[in-house]
Amino acid sequence: MPVSYSILSKGRKEAFDKFGSLYQLPIIRSPYDYLRKQFTGGKVLDVGAGADLYVRQLLRLDDDSYHSLDNDPDGQFTYRDVKEIPSSRLYDWMVLNQVLEHLTINDTAELLKNLVDHLRPGGMFLATIPNTAHPVRYRTETHVTPWSYTGLYAICTASGYQVQQIYRYNKERFPLDPFSWLIERMMRRIYRIDWCDSILLIAAIEETT
């Protein structure tokens, strides 16, 4: 069933009311740094894992703790389709690093709704996307949907997730000299662009009592 644009519009407004403008989102070093610091154990589903399975290496997980989901023909993965996941299998962590921009709006909604059934109550959901306000970050031929941070919030909440925080980050460290700060602020004001090249959304589902 197609995603209702009125739901997306409502969700975008809710995101802005809750987290403020893009430039008000806190900046973190990287999603991997965040994950490494927050991870305390449990089963991980790495969606769009990539052939190198970097999340597994980062967290040093064994076969029982780590499962991957990807349809890249050059990689070896636990699942190649979300519908292959056994209905009873639950995960404590789900990581979708730079995945959703490669899908249509409706395919994103379908994926998120299928995944939410496999996230353990109290479990954590991490998704990153390119920042559409960055001048060059979105220039990749496989990108399909330019998700804004408010749009990502909207599609996640509509799919049953409770968004806890949204961050922005850059793969490179910000220059240290004050002149670069001044230039960045001027460019932001004039062109409405952002130095941070990506967005990180943190969500969960409500714990049952």
The arrangement of helices and strands along the chain is HHEHEEHEHEHE
Mean pLDDT over the residues: 92
Gyration radius (Cα, Å) is 17 Å
- Report the CATH topology name: Rossmann fold
Beta strand count: 6
- Largest sheet, order of strands side by side? 2-1-3-4-6-5
Biggest pleated-sheet summary? 6 strands, mixed
Shape: globular
What top-tier CATH class fits best?
A: Alpha Beta
CATH homologous superfamily placement: Vaccinia Virus protein VP39
| CA(first)-CA(last) distance | 32 Å
Q: Which segments are poorly predicted (pLDDT under 50) over 5 or more consecutive residues?
A: none
The total count of helices amounts to 6
Write a concise synopsis of the structure shown.
This protein has 209 residues and is α/β, with parallel strands linked by helices. 31% of the residues lie in helices and 20% in strands. The two termini are 32 Å apart.
What does this entry look like structurally?
The protein is α/β, with parallel strands linked by helices. It has a single domain, classed as Vaccinia Virus protein VP39 (Rossmann fold). The protein has six helices and six strands, in the order ααβαββαβαβαβ. It has helices at residues 5-19, 31-38, 54-59, 105-116, 149-158, 178-191, and strands at 44-47, 66-69, 91-97, 119-130, 162-169, 198-204. It has a six-stranded mixed beta sheet, with helices on one face. α1 crosses α5. The longest helix has 15 residues, at 5-19. The chain is globular, with a radius of gyration of 17 Å. The model has no long low-confidence stretch (mean pLDDT 92).
